[in-house]
Design a protein that fits this description.
The chain is α/β, with parallel strands linked by helices. 21% of the residues lie in helices and 32% in strands. It starts with a helix and ends with a strand.
Length: 400
């Protein structure tokens, strides 16, 4: 099975754009349940598929929107650009709606926790829907049911983290599952019983857990985490979630303690702190968006293409066995757009390419000496690749 997955990996697919057009099928019903008031609610998703793709067994990414668990939508701006870019890389992508809304009581800890659990139940029903469709429904969207990934931002990050790491035995005493629409335990009753709801790996942008120590040695779902260290909505550390900045809800633990717990138990994960970044820092910032997309796609591709677990992401598209020469320095780094980089070594006749964080080549030039010209490009993360004879060197730079 691993061999058949890896056959799709040409060093390009799942890590950079290989399709220009895609189709979005909207408002597909994947389940149903009742909301916190007992009213029936149909659970809908939008599915993105690449046009002209000959593959019929493709990895699936389920994307979960943010919105405080009070609102949000599968077609909001926090998720649509990611869905469109993931599908252009060759993934099938599902952007889902899940039940939202919180019962307004004097203390919000229990009702808010119950809302998170409703969302987890719905998410699990969606995973089961795709596996059921693959087994019984003709595999409408051509997915590989053994390669299902998931992620989300803000509330969506909370959702996937709790799905991956909160077990029934770890439910705190205050988080009872006896409220309306919560029957069926963590698996819930939102539809498609009889199929597993586990996923291969997750990503979380600005997410948090109730307790980081819910992640224990029995948990084996790898995670890609990113969080702004100036997030004033969901703390990157440990603290209280304060709704709208005025209502204390419950204690949470953000990406710093989550990553530390993962490290302590040896769980595979990659973690990027966005310095100075606020809540969901890729919103409105193209450079942060590009680096976030690059990080997530390369993290997931490791589990599709059967490559070694790695958080450096230095392997560029189409390059075999590159090396990172620690004795080669490029400076200044960060560098200003439209200026030049100086190499600590002199080259006689090297080929130099500048590529963006998605592996797309920006420029190609010949290097005779030690000066590399940087064109006018948008701020962000880039890679300089230097080839001379049998030597291949790759260095990451930041353009300001």
């Amino acid at each position: 099975m691993t061999s058949s997955w890896s056959a799709q990996c040409d060093g390009n697919r799942y890590q950079s754009f290989v399709f220009s057009d895609f189709t979005v099928t909207t408002d597909i019903e994947y389940g149903s349940n009742v909301d916190l008031n007992g009213a029936p609610e149909t659970l809908l998703m939008d599915v993105y598929t690449p046009d002209g793709d000959i593959e019929t067994s493709r990895p699936l990414i389920i994307v979960c929107h943010g919105g405080y668990f009070l609102g949000g939508d599968k077609a909001e701006t926090d998720v649509v650009p990611l869905c469109e870019d993931f599908v252009k890389m060759g993934y099938v992508v599902a952007s889902i709606n899940y039940r939202v809304g919180v019962e307004l009581l004097a203390s919000l800890q229990t009702p808010y926790g119950q809302t998170v659990m409703r969302a987890v139940q719905d998410f699990r029903a969606c995973v089961r829907w795709f596996r059921k469709n693959a087994a019984e429904g003709g595999n409408t969207y051509g997915i590989n049911p053994n390669l299902i990934f998931a992620g989300g931002d803000s509330a969506g990050g909370f959702l996937v983290l709790h799905h991956a790491y909160l077990d029934e035995s770890e439910l705190p005493a205050w988080l009872t599952l006896d409220a309306t629409g919560l029957t069926g335990g963590l698996e819930g009753e939102s539809g498609n019983p009889g199929y597993p709801s586990d996923v291969t790996a997750i990503y979380s942008v600005a997410g948090a857990l109730g307790e980081a120590n819910w992640i224990d040695p029995t948990d084996d779902t790898p995670a890609c985490l990113t969080h702004g260290d100036a997030d004033g909505v969901v703390t990157i550390d440990s603290g209280t979630f304060v709704l709208f900045g005025i209502i204390d809800v419950t204690d949470i633990q953000g990406s710093n303690p989550i990553a530390a717990q993962m490290t302590s138990i040896g769980l595979e994960h990659c973690y990027e702190i966005n310095e100075g970044g606020g809540h969901v820092p890729y919103l409105g910032n193209d450079a942060v968006y590009d680096s976030t997309l690059y990080m997530i796609s390369h993290f997931f591709a490791q589990y599709i293409c059967d490559t070694d677990y790695n958080c450096d992401y230095q392997n560029m598209v189409g390059i075999s066995n590159p090396s990172n020469d620690l004795t080669l320095a490029l400076y200044p780094n960060p560098v200003n757009s439209g200026s030049s980089l100086t190499c600590s070594r002199t080259f006689e006749n090297a080929e130099v390419t500048l590529s963006d964080g998605m592996g797309r080549q920006i420029t190609r030039q010949t290097l005779r000496g030690n000066q590399i010209e940087i064109p006018m490009v948008a701020p962000g993360i880039y890679f300089v690749t230097i080839r001379e004879d049998d030597e291949l060197l790759i260095q990451k730079i930041v353009v300001e």
